[in-house]
Amino acid sequence: MNKKISKIFLIIVSLAMILIIFSLSFITKDKIDIEDVSGDRSALGDMNIVYQKRKGMYETDNIIISKDKEKVEKNVKEGITSFTISKENIGNRELLQMSNDKSNICETDDEITNVSLLNTYSPYSGDEMTVYIDKKDKKSSKIKNYEIIIDDTINVNGDSVYKALPMRDNDNIYLAIISSVYDDSDQDENKSQDSEHDVYKQTYLSLFKLNLSSQQSKCILTKSYDPNEMYTNGDVGFVKDNVAYFVTHVKDEVSKEINTCLFGFNIITKEINIINLGVENQNITNYSIDGNEVLLSCDVDPISKRVKTLAVDLDNKKIISTNEIDAKSKDDYNRYILEMRRYNDKTYLIMCDYKEDDYVDGGNGSPDMDYYIYVINEKNNEILYTGKIKEKIMYNIAFGIVKDEEL
Fold this sequence. Notes:
single chain, five-stranded antiparallel beta sheet, 47% strand, globular, transmembrane
């Protein structure tokens, strides 16, 4: 009799546990909290907004927002924070995690390569400069690592701000570097610096050739500029069709004003072309390449609280369009562009509002952040759609603006 009662009790307890688990699955079901602030979400068209939510070391979810629905993909492979969330980038995670900038990546049909100076490039200090190269075979997924020392041909001491851009050519990697060297000479403490270029004493353009088989390097070109002529802030650069494009600040020969420009240096022919971006001396913070065109974004203007984006035709060296939107945020908050893309005469932006006071211990914590989606008609500057992702997620999250086939 006691055995029969025990079996009945065990069955009842088991059924109760199953019912509780089943109920909890509904209670804890993932909910994507997005607010359609203005316009119609159908303006997203063929694009999806995707980001990842990390719940634990091995628990990462893909959150996908499309023109007509939201979807959660459970327990996916985690992407890299500094790269857009896409199928290709997640597939190359093992290589990309060695990089901190998408401009460090160069690619051929068979291989993808990360080229980085890391923190070893404190130029012109007399120390050796080491280039770290990680090369992945697309078929075998095997990664081979190289360390190649490059010769410093410039006899100038001092720290600098720089941008290094790699280009792959068969067994060679060409590395173009623009660097502005700080003027660290003794100065009167009360002496004012009227312009940003006053902090530099020289700007250099250098080109190195690195051979992977021999692991040897050669300096091909070195050219110097007075910082009153040109300097760089080192933030943005990219390579397209053998041309290294650096964002630099260049003095106009007629007006004598400093303008933000794209400094195009052809790595093969050594030809230089400079495109005035028409944004005065604003800093460029991000870029997105689409064919022969590049989309660039400026800093949010601290006074007007507006932000400019501009599309540039790299072949014709002309500005295609310039758009400007209101980027006002709550008191004590700042807004910046996390991700952007152009498609079918639309500009897609993901922007972030953050409060600097909420960063804890150098970024370890959960600051109060809001994320916004914008879709802009490039032809008339009309904002077709604004959305707000209301759930609170970690500040170092990665986003993507991707088509279905790129998910």
